[in-house]
Amino acid sequence: MTKNKIKSSSYLFPRPVVLIGANISGKPNFEPLAYVSSVEDKPPLISIASYETHFTNIGIKENGTFSVNTPSEEIIVGTDYCGIVSGKEADKSEVFDVFYGELKTAPMIIKAPLNLECKVIKTLAIKDITGGEIGHELFIGEIVNAYAEEEYLTEGAPDISKINTFTYAMKQYWKVGKPLAKAWEVGKKLMTD
Ligand SMILES: Cc1cc2nc3c(=O)[nH]c(=O)nc-3n(C[C@H](O)[C@H](O)[C@H](O)COP(=O)(O)O)c2cc1C
């Protein structure tokens, strides 16, 4: 067996893709983001890492709120567009129709099957850790509300087989695959009473 030593990177296969929404001077702006992770369930917390120079970061810091929107294939073009063009150079407020929830300042995408409305509870400047000039800012958000239309739910919870979302790897979007095995179940084969 030969394990090649490859270039170190924060590889994860596949990565999720979400659209982060923030209001800047009262106008919605969105950026796709792959550096996103669940942090805790009770209370529900999620972390996002967005490069410090991004327009979205201004809005997140301005209001202390952001949204996490799970895209479906139907909005893949708008999703990618928001990743090519910064809100600093183009007005992205018309790319998606939006709605607002309880926090009033976290714009959410109507066509995205799943919307998380988040309040920032912690911000970490990663450049301070690495000593770099600029870097990512890590925002941890508490999910104050989650929204989905009935067609994307099974017994009240979001259903991956209905959401028709996609993942990201190797500069490419990928379809979500088929169910493989039951979690917390398949591993029991190795248990001895
Ligand atoms: C698929 C994809 C994933 C991305 N993931 C991230 C990410 O995790 N963090 C980040 O800072 N930028 C990420 N970007 C880049 C931003 O989306 C991009 O720079 C965007 O234009 C910033 O918009 P803004 O300046 O309006 O905020 C990603 C872009 C794409 C297309």
Low-confidence stretches: none
Q: CATH superfamily, please?
A: Electron Transport, Fmn-binding Protein, Chain A
Strand content: 35-45%
Question: What is the assembly state of the chains in this entry?
Answer: single chain
- The side-by-side strand order for the widest beta sheet comes to 3-2-6-9-10-5-4
Indicate the CATH class.
Answer: Mainly Beta
Question: How does this model look, in words?
Answer:
The protein is globular and about 60 Å long. The strands form four sheets. It has a seven-stranded antiparallel sheet with strand order 3-2-6-9-10-5-4. Strands 1-13-14 form a three-stranded antiparallel sheet, with no helix packed on it. The protein has a two-stranded antiparallel sheet with strand order 7-8. The mean pLDDT is 97. The protein is built from four helices and 14 strands. Helices cover 14% and strands 38% of the residues. It has a single domain (15-190), classed as Electron Transport, Fmn-binding Protein, Chain A (Pnp Oxidase, Chain A). It has 193 residues and is mainly β. Bound molecules: flavin mononucleotide. The site of flavin mononucleotide has 21 residues, from strand 3, strand 5, helix 1 and helix 2. Flavin mononucleotide (FMN) is lined by residues 17, 29, 31-35, 49-51, 54-56, 80, 83, 85-88, 136, 168.
